[in-house]
Structure formats: structure tokens, C-alpha cells
Amino acid sequence: MLKTPQKGLPAVRYGFTLIEVLVVVSIIGLLASIVLVGLGGFRSQGRDAKRIADLKQTQNALELYYTKCQHYPGDAACGLGDPGDWAGLGSAVAGAGIGVSKIANDPLPGNPQYDYGVSGNRQNYVLSGTLEDENNSSLKEDSDGTVFGVLCDDPVYCVEF
């Protein structure tokens, strides 16, 4: 855009050159990539917090199940299914008529699902989920080893009752 010059003065140009625009865009892109790489750890910490919360919610559902059935899921006696895996646990809890329609799955697709194990007399259980951060402070407070057939060594977080 040219401004009409006054007598004896040269024309004034407004705007940015293509080079100036490209330099600014590349600087913004570089800063954005640095920020996104830095936030990656926060995202994994958030998913780990969700995993721990999911296991606590499932623990609450199991306590409701126990109140109704006087044992934890381990066969089809009270619920609809035998919880041989996490999906089976969800079916057993949902089929018990305790007001829980489903249990949560891992927030990251393709990540190992949560796991469930129950004692022989079905009076104790363990829930597990694999955390992304191997230095998560919650791993210091959980069970380790193999509990009711579930491997609980770090980075697997286990809740035992």
C-alpha cells in the first residue's frame, strides 16, 4: 500500500516482507515445539493419575459387590460372568445389580489393560495398572511381587485388599 507522498518526500510502504513473516513464523514454531515437548511429561503424569483414580473407583464398585454378594467376583454365582480378565470383571460387576454399569479402561489406547486377581476364598483381591512414570511416588506405597496371580512389580501399580 502506497501512501501519497507530499511534495519532495518519497513514497512510504506499509506491511511486512515475506522474509520477515517467515522468520516470525519459524520462531513461533520453534517455541511451540519446545513447549509441547516439555508438556509430554505432564500428559503422562495426568494419565497415571487417572489410572490410579480408575482403580480406586473399581475398588469402590467391588466393595458394593461384596456388600451384596458377601464375596468378591470370582465365579458366576452372584454376577453374570466369571472375571477371568478385566472385561469379565466389568461384566460381573455390572451384572450384580449394584448400580455400576461399567468399569474404566486404561486411558491410553494400546496400553496394557488393568488386571484383577482374587484369592481362593474370594475374600481378598488385587487390582493393577501399568504406570508410564516408573518414578511415580505411588509405586512406593503399592504391593509388589505376584499377588493372586497378578504381577505387581514396578511400574505396575497394585491395590490390594
TrEMBL record:
> Topology with regard to the membrane?
Single-pass membrane protein
Record's subcellular location: Membrane
Pfam families, from UniProt? N_methyl
**Which SUPFAM superfamilies does this entry report, sorted A to Z?**
Pili subunits (SSF54523)
**What InterPro entries is this protein classified in?**
Bac_GSPG_pilin, N_methyl_site, Pilin-like
Transmembrane stretches, start-end: 12-42
Q: Which domain of life is it from?
A: Bacteria
The keyword Membrane is assigned to this record: yes
Cellular component (GO) terms are: membrane; type II protein secretion system complex
Q: Give a GO biological-process term.
A: protein secretion by the type II secretion system
Among NCBIfam families, the record links this protein to: IV_pilin_GFxxxE
Specify the protein name. Answer: Type II secretion system protein GspG C-terminal domain-containing protein
The organism named in the record is Candidatus Harrisonbacteria bacterium RIFCSPLOWO2_02_FULL_45_10c
